[in-house]
Design brief:
This protein is an alpha+beta fold and about 450 residues long. Helix content is about 55%, strand content about 10%. The longest helix is centred in the middle third of the chain and has 31 residues. One of its GO terms (biological process) is isoquinoline alkaloid biosynthetic process.
């Protein structure tokens, strides 16, 4: 595993293939008592995440996590917040993203599309969580202390997962290595988030209402706990930002690498444009932005996003503990002390789950013979948004934001991926590309 640490996800998937089964055990480092159970067996995953959820807690499961979920659930089910987020996505795309891409196309320059996706995700989630407009997508590509600090913290989280605890705690004690960088990053995060919390308190006292996630602060039992609020908001911000940034860049790469899929998406968008042409031309000049309500009807586009999220899901691995000894559906016995690693990445790449063409980018697998989306059969083995009580509450919002970006970019620009790039996942908590995706843009003639 150490030898394959750079490509651990692919290595794990190859092991599952070579064994011909969906689970295996790994002994921890020598002289340690650690033991890992790694699985991509779908019945195991459903049992762990859904059927017997309470016996398999994660590090995140706590009273604070339940409150954070309640915040998100209250907001995501509110029609005002849904409408606000949908309109906000269109607004950021039209007023921030498109001018940046048009500038790149006009100057015939290259740009890292992954950085663009990350900047969009940062802007949109700062707005959704805190009600703040950051303008991180301006043509100057400005630096942002908070964006860079959150990236540093996520790198540190990964190292803490793979590094012996005593070692990273020793590094933190002596303020060296990654822990030194993490300490600096948290100081930046704390300063900016506590400032935002203070501002929101003032707005609430003044009776200023907003529909961002922070609006529910007034109903929380821990509303006077500054650290709790900081942790809650940071957690919600990370969840939204990473899912969108990851989902966007892998979708673009898969579509741009599969011309037949891009053609079908464009055909669907051209039909929509034709039906809305008068309305669009009255309100917009090039580049054009579609209404989010219209995008919800595009079957092939939705199928392509599902297929992209199947192959490259934002959270590729899930770490879970065991409270009581239990025999899993595949017959393996797991006991307290064993660390369970659910390989979501491998689940979506197993032929016995998705068929022999499981590695193909094939949106058609999500569409039935009547041209309708296949939901229940595929969703039962689609773990991208988790299962059971931990199911991602922002799933629908993620589709809305991804659609807003990809339709606008693909319809208005021809995107050319520069040759000579080796695209592979970066070792991280969330799935990003190791070296980004450099592209050139030019105006698309419809």
């Amino acid at each position: 595993m150490a030898m394959n640490s750079k490509g651990l996800l692919e290595f794990g998937t190859e092991v599952f293939h070579s064994l011909g089964r969906g689970s295996f055990f790994i002994d921890g480092p020598i002289f340690s008592k650690l033991k890992y159970f790694v699985t991509c067996h779908h019945q195991n995953i459903e049992y762990i995440l859904k059927t017997n959820f309470s016996n398999f807690p994660t590090a995140a499961d706590s009273d604070a996590w339940k409150v954070q979920r309640r915040i998100a659930h209250t907001s995501f089910t509110a029609s005002e917040f849904k409408d606000l987020l949908s309109n906000m996505s269109s607004k950021v795309v039209e007023e921030k993203l498109l001018p940046l891409l048009a500038h790149v196309a006009e100057n015939e320059s290259t740009i890292d599309l992954q950085e663009v996706c990350s900047r969009f995700a940062f802007d949109i989630n700062m707005n959704a969580v805190f009600g703040v407009h950051e303008n991180y997508l301006s043509t100057e590509l400005p630096s942002k202390d908070l964006a860079e600090a959150t990236a540093k913290v996520q790198e540190a989280i990964l190292y803490r997962h793979i590094m012996p605890m005593f070692l990273w705690k020793l590094m933190r004690l002596f303020n060296i290595g990654w822990e030194r960088e993490t300490t600096k990053a948290f100081k930046i995060i704390d300063a900016q988030l506590y400032h935002l919390i203070s501002q929101k308190r003032k707005h609430l006292l003044q009776g200023i209402k907003s529909f961002d996630l922070f609006n529910n602060i007034s109903s929380l039992p821990n509303k006077n706990d500054e650290k709790f609020l900081r942790d809650s908001m940071l957690s919600l911000f990370f969840a939204g930002k990473d899912a969108i940034a990851s989902g966007l860049i892998w979708f673009f790469w898969l579509v741009l690498s599969t011309p037949a899929v891009e053609t079908k998406i464009l055909e669907e968008l051209k039909l929509l444009f034709s039906s809305k042409k008068r309305q669009l031309l009255e309100t917009h000049e090039w580049p054009y932005v579609f209404d989010a309500r219209d995008l919800g009807r595009l079957v092939y586009l939705h199928a392509a996003i599902c297929e992209s999220l199947r192959l490259y899901l934002a959270v590729p691995l899930n770490s879970i503990t065991v409270l009581k000894e239990v025999v899993l559906p595949d017959g393996n016995l797991v006991t307290p002390g064993v660390q369970i690693i659910v390989s979501n990445y491998s689940v979506e790449r197993m032929p016995w789950i998705w068929g022999e063409d499981c590695l193909e980018f094939k949106p058609e697998r999500w569409i039935d013979d009547d041209g309708l989306l296949i939901r229940h059969e595929n969703m039962s083995k689609f773990v991208t948004f988790n299962l059971g009580p931990r199911t991602c509450l922002g799933k629908d919002m993620a589709f809305t934001q991804i659609k807003a970006v990809v339709t606008t970019v693909l319809f208005n620009f021809e995107v050319e991926v520069l040759e000579g790039q080796y695209i592979f996942p970066k070792p991280a908590i969330t799935l990003h590309m190791e070296k980004g995706l450099n592209v050139k843009l030019q105006k698309r003639v419809i």
